[in-house]
Amino acid sequence: MSTITDENPTKTTPGAARTLFTRRTSSLLGIQIAGCGSYVPEMVVTNEQLDQEYGCDPNWIVQRTGIRERRHCPPEMATSDMCVEASRKAIRSSGVDPQQIDLLVCGTFTPDYHCPSTACLVQDKLGLDCPAFDTAAACAGFMYALVTASQFVATGNAKYALAVGGDLNSRIVNPKDQRTYPLFGDGAGAVLVTRGTPHQGLVCYQLGSDGSGGPLLDRPAGGTHTPITPEAIVAGEQYLRMDGRSVFKWAVRMLADTIELVLEKSGMSVHDISQFVLHQANVRIINAAADQLGIPQEKLFVNLDRYGNTSGGSIPIALDEAFQEGKIHRGDAILMCGFGGGLTWGTGVFRW
User: Fold this and answer.
1) Domain coordinates of the chain in residue numbers?
2) Which NCBIfam families has this protein been placed in (predicted)?
3) Tell me: the pLDDT tens digits for 96-136?
């Protein structure tokens, strides 16, 4: 079931960019997550290593972000490889025959290639017989993939749908950018969605975007607007750029507003949520929103101290780890929220 309510958007002006925030929400019930899995590379990169190699201040990283280490892929590994490993674990966890999977949606903004899609590469490596496509919504990519896959299942157009999120950020951030490079890591996660009971699924969710804030977090060169040239490479325009201060302010406000809205529309309070699985971008963003909303620390799942910001992989990795640690059970209400470049966000209360 899918419903849409409250279509009146509000606009504010937070300094560098206009911010668009709508009160429109939807629901999507009758689905369940049958299995989940995650993968992070073996290579651990500590703050101290970044200090030795690039002169990054370890204390600044911890104090400003809460990150102590992250994982980086070896040269021979690509985004699709991580997504394949996470997907295999999700499929094993579900006990479903892979030949029954009839859809694959991959949320990533670090694809192996511009063409073919990363989803097609994952589909081929897994030996699946299904359509496959990417959703490019940066750190909200997994939420976009989850909602899209769930729609196919809820309408009967797919029986088992893989929703995957993964990013290989260490390849797209400039190591010389001491304020941005330490924030990101590599990783992927996946869930298998299928039909559930009438009360399972997305009790309430919101997907949103505000392209006016695109310049706050972008990669200038590499697309049709600004192709890669020798001059662009010398200028470092193939790398991710971020206006950290403006993104931080937007994220704190957006996280609190969208969570508050989805809880309100769900008829729930913070006390009704078993776990808050939020995008692992910065512990200060998470804590600021938690303080504003009165979320107890024991309900916040945090692993960014070990992995950093894995973008599209962030939520499914945290979701899988929370499930493996026994913090998620059937019937629990889990609140997930991803937010990032675009600007984009995706928030949902999922009845497990």
Assistant:
1) 1-352
2) fabH, PRK09352.1
3) 999 999 999 999 999 999 999 999 999 999 999 999 999 99
Distances 69 to 54, 66, 79, 174 between C-alpha atoms, Å: 15, 9, 20, 17
- In the annotation, is 139 catalytic? yes
**How far is Cα 260 from Cα 25, in angstroms, rounded to an integer?**
12
Determine which one of 56, 169, 309, 337 is catalytic.
309
- Which of 83, 139, 204, 337 is catalytic? The answer is 139
Rounded CA-CA distance 240/247 in Å is 13
The conformation of residue 309, written as its DSSP 8-state character, comes to B
102, 160 Cβ separation under 8 angstroms: yes
309 noted as active-site residue: yes
* pLDDT category of residue 21 using cuts at 50, 70 and 90: confident
Summarize the confidence of residues 48-60 as an average pLDDT.
90
> Is 329 one of the annotated active-site residues of the chain?
no
Distance (Å, whole) CA 350 – CA 258 = 15
What pLDDT, in 10s, does the model give residues 66-90?
Answer: 999 999 999 999 999 999 999 999 9
* Integer angstrom CA distances of residue 198 from 32, 56, 92, 234, 330: 10, 51, 25, 56, 14
CA distance 284 to 63: 9
User: Which CATH fold would you assign to the domain 1-352?
Assistant: Peroxisomal Thiolase; Chain A, domain 1 (3.40.47)
